[in-house]
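Question:
Write out your own:
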Amino acid sequence: MAPDRQRTPTPSHDVTLIGRHTQQRTIVVEALIRADGFVGTQALHNQLATDDTPVGLSTVYRTLTGPADADRTDMVRDTGGERLFRYRPGPDHRPYLLRTECGLSRPVDSGPVEDWADTIAQDPR
């Protein structure tokens, strides 16, 4: 990380999600928290390199699996199949529509869709 750049505090609970606690893994989680919207592993790795933070690509991959497994990230796939992650500060999931061409995401109210799915699931046909 560049010396003049302040680090974003990582919520203490989220640091425990990264497996073995190391400075590099903490930096990866902090970068994910700071990311604007969904970010791929390679893009996050490139951002860290741009910030003069030497973190290996494999460390970024391994670190992102902790918050994802703990349901603290939203994950979507882009048109090429790459997984994109966005940090979620709380355990509540919120569905998003994601434009695959530009990456724009918007939250959606999933209540009507979930109600419809429940109704269809109960239909004996």
